[in-house]
Design a protein that fits this description.
The chain has 161 residues and is α+β, with helices and mostly antiparallel strands. It has helices at residues 13-31, 39-53, 108-122, 137-145, and strands at residues 3-7, 57-64, 71-79, 91-99, 127-130. Strands 1-2-3-4-5 form a 5-stranded mixed beta sheet, sandwiched between helices. Helix 1 (13-31) crosses helix 2 (39-53). The longest helix has 19 residues, at 13-31.
């Protein structure tokens, strides 16, 4: 089935929230015992509306079959503010991405990332960043195949309260 990328509009916010909620359940919910998987449905509307309407942000939807077809995935991104420690870096951050299971392995994620790279380049970004759970080896492999390479490593220790 053909998948069409569209830039999300305000009327697409509920579909974007639904896709983000699925990402929270599938990814954070499996890998982070402290993740509030209900946040998108409860509090995400305003956040994702900002991603849709914000000048320095991007919200893409992958739609199955037509520009108004069912959502097959999403990508959100934003330009980071200037960093005085890295004054020449103009960084575009891929904040979240998800492709529905039935559409995985068909290039949908690659097309979303290509759309993100194009958007970032048009805004003068010279670096793109993304984070993924270390345990999500499929996501890490996917991002590495698209030119992302490890830059920072975060380590954590669980403490008994």
């Amino acid at each position: 089935m053909e998948v069409i990328l569209t830039t999300a509009r305000v009327e697409d916010v509920p579909a974007l929230v639904a896709s983000a909620a699925a990402l929270f359940r599938e990814d954070g919910g499996r890998r982070d015992p402290f993740m509030d998987v209900d946040w998108p449905a409860r509090d995400g509307h305003d956040y994702y509306r900002g991603m849709v309407t914000g000048e320095g942000s991007l919200a893409l939807l992958a739609r199955a079959g037509s520009p108004d077809g069912p959502v097959a995935g999403h990508l959100t991104a934003r330009l980071r503010g200037r960093d005085e420690l890295r004054p020449d870096a103009v960084v575009a951050e891929l904040v979240s991405m998800r492709v529905d299971e039935e559409h995985r392995g068909h290039g949908v994620g690659a097309r979303l990332v290509e759309g993100f790279f194009a958007w970032a380049g048009e805004r003068g970004a010279n670096q793109a960043v993304v984070s993924a759970y270390a345990a999500n080896t499929d996501a890490i492999r996917f991002y590495k195949a698209r030119g992302f390479a490890p830059m920072h490593v975060s380590l954590q220790a669980d403490l008994d309260a």
